[in-house]
Design goal:
Radius of gyration: 21 Å
GO biological process, one term: pyridoxine biosynthetic process
Family: Belongs to the pyridoxamine 5'-phosphate oxidase family.
GO molecular function, one term: FMN binding
CATH architecture of one domain: Roll
Cofactor: FMN
Structural class: alpha+beta
InterPro entries: Pyridox_Oxase, Pyridox_Oxase_N, Pyridoxamine_oxidase_dimer_C, Split_barrel_FMN-bd
Order of helices and strands: EEHHEEEEHEEHHHEEEE
Number of helices: 6
């Protein structure tokens, strides 16, 4: 196989290489927007179940996008913790870069993409921290190794010696084992109260199906939905 490089180097041109990669391969699921439920979380759970049954790996993994105090956007992948009529939940250390972003600008966008089904879901809205008890319960439900990583702290700080990381992790795990009820105070469960949720189903002929839910009503508990152009 030819390597990837720039034009004129004797290797495959990157643009040509990317255009040659397959997209929307295999059989794709059907999606009838007219039969969609009234609330977006119901459709999300239906699609999530379908993704699990189709063998999609880590379908609860999503991209969280935030905006810092200086207006710089940032994105990273993490796991969905829960979804119900109140919103979509994820957890993070409030002292981490994403936690600081949310303190400065409490809004976020979530995106899910399941390539085996060529389905994408986009969620946007304001973000609020859950009560401390809910955050503590989420922390204690994590595996010991995950809790130890959070106890060790220093997320996103420069790492000059991997041995320092190994030692800090060992000490943190020992502490977690000694103190099974230990909770990192900064650990926070966040809820995105969606204002807009879009479901996107790809089509091999690029006649993609897009269904958008928008929150409405005096109390903000109702939804309208409609199709969008591809």
């Amino acid at each position: 196989m030819a390597g990837i490089g720039t034009a004129g180097t004797g290797t495959t041109d990157v643009r040509q290489y990317l255009r040659g990669l397959a997209v929307f391969a295999g059989d794709l699921p059907d999606f009838d927007p007219d039969a969609a439920p009234d609330r977006p979380e119901a459709l999300f759970l239906d699609w999530l179940t379908g993704a699990v049954e189709a063998g999609v790996r880590e379908p609860h993994a999503m991209t969280l996008s935030t905006v810092g105090a200086d207006g710089t956007p940032s994105a990273r992948a993490l796991l969905l913790k829960n979804v119900d009529r109140h919103g979509w939940q994820f957890a993070a250390n409030a002292a981490s870069p994403k936690g600081r972003d949310l303190a400065a600008n409490p809004v976020a966008a979530l995106s899910f993409y399941w390539p085996q089904q060529a389905r994408q879901i986009r969620v946007t809205g304001p973000v609020a921290p859950e009560p401390a008890g809910n955050s503590a319960a989420d922390f204690l439900a994590r595996p010991p190794g995950s809790r130890a990583e959070a106890v060790a702290g220093r997320q996103s700080q420069p790492l000059h010696d991997v041995r320092e990381l190994e030692r800090a992790t060992e000490l943190a795990l020992e502490r977690v084992e000694r103190e099974p009820g230990l909770v990192v105070p900064e650990w926070t469960l966040y809820t995105v109260r969606a204002e807009r949720v879009e479901f996107w189903q790809a089509d091999k002929q690029r006649r993609h199906t897009r269904l958008c839910y928008l929150r409405e009503g005096a109390e903000g508990e109702g939804w309208t939905r409609g199709r969008l152009w591809p």
